[in-house]
Design a protein that fits this description.
Number of strands: 10
Shape: globular
Number of domains: 2
Structural class: alpha/beta
Radius of gyration: 19 Å
Largest sheet: 10 strands, mixed
CATH superfamily of the largest domain: Thiolase/Chalcone synthase
Number of helices: 11
Order of helices and strands: EEHEHEHEHHHEHEHEHHHEE
Length: 364
């Protein structure tokens, strides 16, 4: 088996739906990322392009994005749908292509334009199963686990504080691809604590899940280039070796708990322990859902390794892109800033699934 290694990672800024990127289709957001990766490594033409998307327009946006980016017509492309885990799943699929020897270079990531997506959603499960939207499911999970409003608000406030601090240190600068001259994440700003305590419940009267301790629906894209370890060594660049990945299924009633078995499976496959990991990125769809997973895994809710520079609650959650955003963040931290060696990315997925991926720095 050949070791797959990520050697470049970029993302667009993340904008709330119906704001800065309201008129930009998801495929064009993705193409902006591919153009940046192509310019950075012009000799790394991919053998395949894999693009995750949750609410795409139909057709094959991956192919559209690849051609728009200027890659040759001989480069094939496929669009992947594992809902909020789609971008991360595209990277896992790309890693599998490299590991099997089927490809030497893969472009993989995710994109989402919630602004242009049709309203409503298709069912995730057949009749006879609970099929809640993620928001009501987070409210139910908070009640089931006894995760009170204060814990959720504290977690959300910390996500915003960490993102503001990271932006002030220019942590995000090198990973961003400007869109329409926007070169920073527009949602990041300081939030007064009373904004959290005053926010009403969104999904139940008097509920604890609020707009303030949840992610905003967003537009954005992210992607990576994955190559063989031999290719990385020839280029003499550092990279993130993809050491393991896993998907999991859970009761569709509790979709937010999907990361728990996925992370445990990845740890078994890699032989790692949580204490061995320097950075942990989890899609912060709802504070309640993240807290439930951290409780399951025995990780403190204020652990500095978890979304160290803030997460989706602060930056935004462009559904199919969010899993790829996590990997871009790991690359920026472990390669760009040298903040550790090992990383873990994980997402909860509507319909009762989870996905996780482990990486380790290699090279100079």
């Amino acid at each position: 088996m050949t070791t797959p290694v990520i050697i470049a990672a970029r993302r667009t800024p993340i904008a709330s739906a119906h704001t800065a990127f309201a008129d930009i289709p998801a495929a064009e957001l993705a193409a902006s990322v591919w153009r940046a990766l192509r310019a950075e490594l012009p000799d790394c033409t991919p053998d395949d392009v894999l693009l995750g998307m949750a609410r795409g327009p139909g057709g094959n946006p991956a192919r559209l994005s690849a051609l728009s980016a200027g890659w040759p017509v001989t480069v094939p492309a496929a669009t992947v749908d594992r809902q909020c885990g789609a971008g991360l799943d595209a990277i896992c699929m790309g890693a599998a292509e490299i590991a099997s020897g089927a490809a030497s270079v893969i472009a993989a990531g995710g994109a989402e334009s919630a602004s242009t997506a049709e309203s409503g959603r298709a069912p995730f499960v057949p009749d006879g199963f609970a099929d809640p939207d993620m928001g009501p499911a987070a409210e139910d999970l908070a009640n089931e686990r006894g995760i009170d409003r204060k814990r959720q608000d504290d977690y959300a406030a910390r996500s915003h504080d960490r993102a503001v601090a990271a932006q002030s240190r220019h942590v995000f600068d090198d990973e961003l691809v400007p869109i329409h001259e926007m070169n920073s994440d527009p949602r990041i700003r300081s939030r007064r604590r009373e904004l959290f305590t005053r926010a009403p419940g969104v999904f139940a009267p008097g509920g604890s899940v609020t707009a303030a301790n949840s992610c905003p629906i967003s537009d954005g894209a992210a992607g990576v280039l994955i190559v063989t370890e031999e290719h990385r060594a020839r280029l003499a660049v550092p990279g993130l070796a993809i050491t393991g990945w896993a998907r999991s299924g859970v009761d569709p009633r509790w979709p937010g708990t999907g990361p728990t078995p996925a992370v445990r499976s990845v740890l078994r496959r890699t032989g790692w322990h949580l204490a061995d990991i320097d950075r942990i990125e989890i899609t912060e769809a709802f504070a309640a859902q993240v807290l439930a997973v951290l409780d399951d895994l025995g990780i403190a809710e204020d652990d500095p390794r978890v979304c160290a520079d803030g997460g989706a609650i602060a930056l935004g959650h462009p559904w199919g892109a969010s899993g790829a955003v996590l990997v871009v963040r790991l690359f920026a931290a472990l390669i760009g800033l040298g903040k550790g060696t090992r990383g873990l990315a994980t997402c909860a997925i509507g319909g009762g699934q989870g996905i996780a991926l482990a990486v380790e720095r290699v090279g100079p």
